[in-house]
Specification:
A hairpin with a 6-residue loop joins strand 4 (33-39) and strand 5 (46-51). Helices cover 5% and strands 46% of the residues. By secondary structure, the protein is mainly beta. The mean pLDDT is 95. The strands form two sheets. Strands 2, 4, 5, 6, 9, 10 and 11 form a seven-stranded mixed sheet that branches. It has a four-stranded antiparallel sheet with strand order 1-3-8-7, with no helix packed on it.
Length: 127
């Protein structure tokens, strides 16, 4: 069992930056691939970024590529999402997820592939 707790959300102006953190419980964090997803009001949950268990591979949605960076610190049981050049369309609840995924599954970006989820943190970007 893994428990995930996100933090770092908030209100920021367009063009600004935020760094989200996702702290995981348990001693098996380093065995999970980790992903970030977001959901805006009235929309389906959307894949944002993912990172392999070792941190050696990352994958991004086209909409955030070049602006967002996912990273992880396995010693701290934490995954991060650095978000730069934020746009109003980035406004959503951001959630982290953990799972035992092959890399091909990670690239598929399907929420149902992940086993554990955090409660989410709100990110609001004003224009």
């Amino acid at each position: 069992q893994v428990q995930l707790v996100e933090s770092g959300g908030g209100l920021v102006q367009a063009g600004g930056s935020l760094r989200l953190s996702c702290a995981a419980s348990g001693r098996t964090f380093s065995t999970y691939a980790m992903g970030w997803f977001r959901q805006a009001p009235g929309k389906e949950r959307e894949f944002v970024a993912a990172i392999s268990s070792s941190g050696g591979r990352t994958y991004y949605a086209d909409s955030v590529k070049g602006r967002f960076t996912i990273s992880r610190d396995n010693a701290k049981n934490t995954v991060y999402l650095q978000m730069n050049s934020l746009k109003p369309e980035d406004t959503a609840v951001y959630s982290c997820a953990a799972g035992f995924l092959t890399w091909s599954t990670v690239v598929g970006g399907q929420p149902r592939a992940y086993n554990y989820w955090g409660q989410g943190t709100q990110v609001t970007v004003s224009s």
